[in-house]
């Protein structure tokens, strides 16, 4: 009975988090284990295909499988998560997915042509530095 009351209280606390505009809160359920999780607005909007003005819930629902796979990865790494200290997912947790998404948007022949033009002129580390600079400039302008 005490466990049930605790779960009810946790559920109620979780329904109206104070930072709901920047985070989407949900529970990851695996067997009888319920883990409180929050995912940032930035992660949902930048790492998944989303339409302008689309709700965080809609983005989450459309990408539940990918999001929950990342939760499982983080759970395997260990840690204890509570409603006060939930498992937190942010954009860096989905960086590989975001990069793959952008690669899908650019035509492969265009990537190959550009890569051939840059071959031997720059190292991968130098190109990563350029990409980092471009990301910082675009986020500063946005």
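Sequence proposed for the structure above (142 residues):
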């Amino acid at each position: 009975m005490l466990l049930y009351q605790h779960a009810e209280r946790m559920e109620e606390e979780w329904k109206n988090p104070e930072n709901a505009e920047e985070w989407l809160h949900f529970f990851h359920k695996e067997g009888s284990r319920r883990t409180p999780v929050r995912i940032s607005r930035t992660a949902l909007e930048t790492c998944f295909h989303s339409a302008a003005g689309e709700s965080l819930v809609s983005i989450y629902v459309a990408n539940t499988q990918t999001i929950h796979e990342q939760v499982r990865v983080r759970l395997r790494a260990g840690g204890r998560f509570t409603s006060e200290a939930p498992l937190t997912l942010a954009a860096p947790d989905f960086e590989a997915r975001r990069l793959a998404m952008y690669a899908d948007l650019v035509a492969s022949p265009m990537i190959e042509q550009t890569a051939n033009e840059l071959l031997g002129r720059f190292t991968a580390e130098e190109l990563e530095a350029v990409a980092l600079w471009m990301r910082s400039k675009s986020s500063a302008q946005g």
